[in-house]
Design goal:
The chain is mainly alpha-helical. 65% of the residues lie in helices and 0% in strands.
Length: 224
């Protein structure tokens, strides 16, 4: 049986071993645990589900689709515009720096994998993870839906690993949580496909508070 190269590339792009530093970010979860908002598996599931339903579905994934199409059309003005819009939706300096650093790190990696278009994004202040993730997907002929699924899986797996360390959850309970939450991903992608340009964006007060408070947290494991 021939190897499905786009699938193999997607698995590589979504792997937790990808050396772009996402493991060092908790997206405010560390502060939420510190403040007692998340104290068990049920709390962690509610926190992650809320981010999926009210943040990624209305912001990251619709923008990812538009970036994917812009890369296909070689529309660099649209690529820059949507990258800036995504950064503008990050409500704290930590969240902006996380997205920027992730995008720049992925750009460096892609250059090493012969994706030359990524070179200009290595030091680009408008870089986001979605910008370079979508570039890689287009270069490697990964379809839109699969690109969104890989992006969501990368985010979800990292959040569950944060919960395993911080709550803490055991490894088995972490896998059970991941198993339940992954069932939500196809519907989130389907809903995100229907979102119009003027519907993109959202504000999660809990995430913004946790992230801003984490910036001043005395002792921490994560950069955000």
């Amino acid at each position: 049986m021939p190897i499905d190269y786009p699938l193999a590339r997607l698995l590589q792009l979504s792997s937790p071993t990808l050396p772009i530093g996402l493991y060092s970010y908790s997206q405010g979860m560390e502060r939420a645990v510190e403040d007692g908002w998340i104290g068990n598996e049920q709390h962690a599931e509610g926190w992650i589900s809320g981010l999926l339903d009210y943040s990624l579905k209305f912001t990251d994934i619709p923008v990812l689709f538009r970036l994917h199409r812009a890369w296909e059309n070689k529309d660099h003005r649209a690529i820059t515009r949507w990258s800036r819009i995504l950064l503008a939706c990050r409500e704290t300096s930590e969240l902006r720096e996380e997205d920027r650093h992730g995008g720049q790190a992925l750009a460096r990696l892609l250059v090493g994998l012969d994706v030359d278009q990524a070179k200009v994004w290595i030091n680009q202040s408008d870089a986001t993870l979605a910008t370079c993730f979508s570039l890689a997907a287009v270069e490697w002929k990964i379809p839109e839906f699969d690109t969104a699924l890989g992006y969501l899986w990368t985010w979800l797996e990292n959040q569950v690993l944060c919960a395993v360390k911080l709550v803490p959850l055991g490894q088995v309970r972490g896998q059970q949580l991941l198993w339940r939450l992954k069932e939500r991903l196809p519907n989130i992608i389907d809903d995100a496909m229907k979102i119009n340009d003027d519907e993109i964006g959202g504000s999660l007060i809990g995430l913004a508070l946790a992230s801003s408070r984490h910036e001043e947290q005395y002792s921490r494991l994560y950069r955000s």
